Amino acid sequence: MPVRLRGSRLTAETLSKGCVYVGQGSPYANPFRPGTPSASFPGTSMTAEEAVDLFAATLRGPVGRRYAERFATRLRGLDLVCTCPLDVPCHAGVLLRLANESPLGRPETPGSTHYLEGTTR
């Protein structure tokens, strides 16, 4: 089963062809950043968990589902590398589930969004 790793684009290139960098600057990056102003709680900063939840919610939306299907196809079976610490929520976890899991342990069918539920851990 593919895993989430911590590192940079160079780390992913160095490790193997079985790794893809999904952090900032990649086509798979999370546009929601921890530390930026929170949309949910004015006057506070967004937490890593909130940023991951917003990323997953975006992929469940009408436009996001198209990206989710493309991401799943391109990332299936690959380890994902991001700069986030491994002990905090990261959008790479969402992408791993998207690409490799389903509620029944089988690859998802196009249009299904079950793999985007419960994404913060």
Automatic annotation (TrEMBL):
It comes from Streptomyces alboflavus. It comes from the Bacteria. Keywords: Plasmid. Residues 15-96 form the DUF4326 domain. InterPro entries: DUF4326. Residues 101-121 are annotated as: Disordered. It holds the Pfam family DUF4326. This is DUF4326 domain-containing protein.
